[in-house]
Amino acid sequence: MADIILAGFGGQGVLTAGLILINVAVKQDKNVTWTSSYGAEMRGGTASCSVVISDEEIGSPYPTKLDVLLALNEPSYDKFLPMVREGGTVIVNSSLVKKENYPDNVNVWKIAATDLANEQGAARNTNIYMLGAFVKATGMMEKDFFIEQMNAYFEKKGKINPANAVSIERGYELAEKV
Question: What CATH number is given to the structural domain containing 22?
Answer without folding.
Answer: 3.40.920.10
